[in-house]
Amino acid sequence: MRAAVLEQQNQPLAIRDDVEIRDPGPGQVLVKVANCGICHSDLSVIDGAFPSPTPIILGHEAAGVVAAVGTNVRGVEVGDHVVLTPCPPCGRCYWCVRNEPSHCELSLGLLTHSFPDGTTGLSRKGQTVLRGLNIAGFAEYALLGETGAVRVPKDAPLDVVCTIGCAVQTGVGAVLNTAKVEEGATVLVLGLGGIGLSVVQGARIGGAARILADDPVAARRHAAKAMGATDLIDPGSDDVQAKVREITTVGVDFAFECAGRAALVEAGLAATRNGGTIVAVGAPPVNESITIAPAALFTVSGKRLMGTILGGVNSLREIPRLVSLWKAGRLDLEALVTNRRPLADINAALDDLRASRGIRTVLAC
Contact at 8 Å (CB) between 83 and 91? Predict the structure, then answer.
């Protein structure tokens, strides 16, 4: 099959036509990938912010059509339209039975870039190719465990609903599942890419009274306004903490860091009221740390600092729910997609992401 392969970090991706992908085994499905969004986590691996072995196929915000199924597969069948998820729940492990499915043992593939048995199902010229971020969606086909492919209605355009696979699940889920934002709350969103704008929409759906949206890119702030933000903050000209205090008097109830910057987590801590909640949604480079000083002040403030992976969702439930919200007009997916390119143009699309041009580029694979 054809795929965009990262052969060495800090190098452009190479389009290869000779990647081999095995047939699905028991409990597995083979999906013909139609579209895949480009997420900042993909870029972090490419640019070395997340060290990784190579060669590897990245891409984890994908949708397509089931092409083949292995034995014992009951959840989907050939011809089904599906959105893929990087955190598939097994339903049986320590975390799944405690209703923490985004931490399922199967999600370890995000770090190992392989199936639980250490295989990837991918190779090229006899060399194993890694299954990047548990999907490897920058390719014509993807091989997944059954719960990694979630059926969606066939009238849902795959180049739109693919955004649910990562950005929308993560952002909306962080609001409704991780933080459990209540009606009437005040919310600060730091970073307005695909995930941040999904947080804005999740906060609106959850009934937040004030949604403060912070990003240095004017077009992204304007997009946030259209999606439900009540107040816009330009960190280039505004003192974020002072602006938050001016609007709320005491600080926000909830702050969400969505750009993958440790410094923004610290900014969220400063802008949150005593007893409030800060959720680290983005994935900072591995060499960045969060500093909380003085620790005693944090202790008496009663603030909560939380992490989240894929918004704490159960994708088997969340993907259909988000599609339903989109169909009901309560969730804007189309506005997240600001560019569409063929797989061959992936390196130009990555340059757009590096330069913060647009929100989401979706590839036709």
Answer: no
